[in-house]
Amino acid sequence: MKLPVLFKILPVLALAGTVACGEDAAQETNKPDAVREGLTQPPAPVMAETPDMNARRGRLQFITRGCVICHQVNGVGGTAAPDLSAASAPDAVNPLDFSARMWRGAPAMTALQAVELGYVIDLDAQDIADLAAFAASPEEQKLLTEESIPAEMRDWFIDAPHWRSDDWADYLQRGERIPGLDEEDY
CA–CA separation, 108 vs 170, rounded Å? Predict the structure, then answer.
């Protein structure tokens, strides 16, 4: 299913489910006050699993996955993507915020990876949590030096700030395929 079609169908399905649930609740109670009272009660807590975050693993991921080719930390790396230098250590690191920032840049990031690397980097939840920890750790970022990057990888650093342009939609319209995605995913 193509993504735009899915976005047209989801609101209709959600609305249908809401109407059906509302009708069931109204039929059960037949009291609008009972429904209003139920809506004022706090929801049941939902347990969320969060991976252990490790800035050292994040630094190693930053190098070995190729993030350093486009992103810079304390002057080391490419400038094709936003600088990830941490000015100071935050009180807490939220890997979901980091993931959301990645999501907003995903079209440009995956297109650039496809062109420069020939593939799209595959990250799981643990990788993202570790990268978030690294991006927030000035102490671990100090360990990222030019010498800690393999010499052949240093030649791959991209020094054009592609992330500031909005031409990634044109990339897809030109028909350039992003490896790892099927036609219906575009």
Answer: 11
Angle, CA 76 vertex, CA 70 and CA 80 arms, to 5° = 20
- The mean of the pLDDT values for the chain is 78
First-to-final CA distance of the chain: 10
Give the H or E element holding residue 27.
Answer: helix 3-29
The residue behind tokens 């020094």 is: 159
Residue pair 73/83 in contact (Cβ under 8 Å)? The answer is yes
> CA–CA separation, 61 vs 53, rounded Å?
12
Asked whether the beta carbons of 70 and 117 are under 8 A apart, the reply is no
Closest CA relative to residue 67, chosen from 26, 121, 111: 121
CA dihedral for 155, 71, 134, 136, sign (positive or negative): positive
Structure tokens at 37: 């009272």
Query: Phi-psi bin for 118: left (phi > 0), alpha (psi -120 to 50), beta?
Result: left
What letter would DSSP give residue 160?
A: S
| C-alpha 159: how far from chain center | 22
Q: pTM higher than 0.70 for the full model?
A: no
Higher pLDDT, 143 or 27: 143
